[in-house]
């Protein structure tokens, strides 16, 4: 068990690349920050898993249904692993985290506050959103100071990699399809482009403690820009447009520049006031209730022992 | 519910490694959940599931404390001795 005399000592340990384990006597501010970060991640995986589940029966063809099923298992699985390590921090139990999520008192990422209208939307989510989530998770993994989170992220990242490749395959399939498919896909890209790049959040504060404590390893704007440099040319190459009238390529550097983002709507979205937040939460509550018989059966098994 | 720790052994000569934890009502369900949570893509060829309260955790400071340098040999002394012997020989002849 490690222990530090002061926050300064602790921060020096972190700067040296130190790894914090659950049994260590970490400063409360760090414990709470790591906990909140993992809880937000877990909630987002869970809410994402539920939308994924909606598409198992609707996905075209058996193969796509099977991949939707596998992806649902992965996302719910990610939530599960994350809730386990979050609970070990001793701030809230798993049940408390679920209750708070369903009551709408905690948060989940912006991209899960929108409705997935069509198969094109589902492809856009797989292509744009999973990739953005993967990029931000990789940045956490790279230098993460909390041991259990780093170890679990290794597994999550491997599986997100499957999702991203799957998304690219789906997008390219749509791109080489009929006019109807291409139009549907463009519509969905129009809807999901902005939410996807907003997933990285507004520019990081200069004194962001998440960066200082090696929970994040890169600033939000750096991750967002790297994503833009990668995905703008990919979308254009696939024959799609990027829904940004201010988009241009710098003649000298070759870098893509986007219009300024209005971050106000994101703030409301993150407070569960997004376009589809209400329905999503009601849907999550219904799913939780529908599965209560499983939890009851497990609890009964405990009692009968 | 009881908390269990899960260990996977990948194919080949790799030793078992800790992969994470889960909650389950009993040992039987713990094994099922372990496969679903940690072995969906055949990530390992063997799985161990151990109740968290059955794990005896040693005192970390006992492992870290003392100077254990006498238990290692980085070979530096050997190369010094070899060099001096070679020099002696060369000078002597
Ligand atoms: Fe995920
Ligand atoms: Fe994913």
Q: Order of helices and strands of chain A, N to C?
A: HHHHHHHHHEEHHH
Task: Kindly report the greatest chain-chain contact and the residue count on each side.
Answer: A-B, 21 and 19 residues
User: Any idea of the CATH topology of chain A?
Assistant: Ferritin
Instruction: Identify the strand order in the major beta sheet of chain B.
Output: 2-1-3
Tally of alpha and pi helices of chain A: 12
Report the end-to-end length of chain B measured between terminal Cα atoms.
80 Å
Bound small molecules, by name, code or SMILES, are: fe (ii) ion
CATH homology group of chain A: Ferritin, core subunit, four-helix bundle
What would the keywords be for this entry?
heterodimer; A: 305 residues; mainly alpha; Ferritin; two-stranded antiparallel sheet; 12 helices; B: 93 residues; 3-stranded antiparallel sheet; 3 helices; 37% helix; binds fe (ii) ion
